[in-house]
């Protein structure tokens, strides 16, 4: 099975949160980071595919930044708009893993990511975060978790939804509810 989950595919687990400001989005991303960290500690070789879906300026890169920094990365997390992909080296329990952050917005051909050799990043320990998966038109591997961001009524409001489509994604999403927001 490949590609973006169609809207009719029913998620195995869901979490919806209304974030009134960026700090609340950051808090949700940090709780996801804690859940991924736990997943990596239990299964050091595991890999998660996570899509970030939403309009221009919805907050996909902002969410990715708080997630990657929530996993202990101390440098800048920039939008990979021009490079298509940025890797981040992370650690859990002395075990290294990698987050590959993609932005496919500028891709001209749906198969460009495969020609660039990115396909091999989809099973290294860690996770892939993919902004604009729509641009790959169903050529990407299946997503474990799809994150959708929508603008709210006020400028800084976002409705954020996490949907899990695999057993591993389900565990990660379900665990978030048990992790307390620290802000
Ligand atoms: N609640 C919020 N959650 C996330 N971002 C917010 C929120 N409130 C305001 N923002 C701001 O919205 C902007 C979102 O920009 P960002 O680059 O993350 O969007 P994007 O979805 O990645 O866009 P693009 O499709 O161009 O890559 C940032 O300037 C961020 O500070
Ligand atoms: Mg972006």
Name some characteristics of this structure:
alpha/beta; 183 residues; binds magnesium ion; Rossmann fold; 28% strand
Task: Tell me about this structure.
By secondary structure, the protein is α/β, with parallel strands linked by helices. The protein has one domain (13-108, 117-176): P-loop containing nucleotide triphosphate hydrolases (Rossmann fold, 3-Layer(aba) Sandwich), CATH 3.40.50.300. The protein is 25% helix and 28% strand. The protein contains four helices and seven strands; from the N terminus they run E-H-E-H-E-E-H-E-E-E-H. The protein has helices spanning 22-42, 60-70, 112-115, 167-176, and strands at 13-19, 47-53, 85-92, 95-103, 126-131, 145-151, 158-164. It has a seven-stranded mixed β-sheet with strand order 1-7-6-2-5-4-3. Helix 1 crosses helix 2 (60-70). The longest helix has 21 residues, at 22-42. The site of adenosine-5'-triphosphate has 17 residues, from helix 1 and helix 2.
Unreliably modeled segments: none
Counting structural domains, the number is: 1
Span from first to last CA? 39 Å
Secondary-structure element pattern, one letter each: EHEHEEHEEEH
Structural class of the secondary elements? Answer: alpha/beta
Count the strands?
7
CATH topology type: Rossmann fold
Which ions, cofactors or small ligands are bound in this entry? adenosine-5'-triphosphate, magnesium ion
What is the CATH architecture assignment? 3-Layer(aba) Sandwich
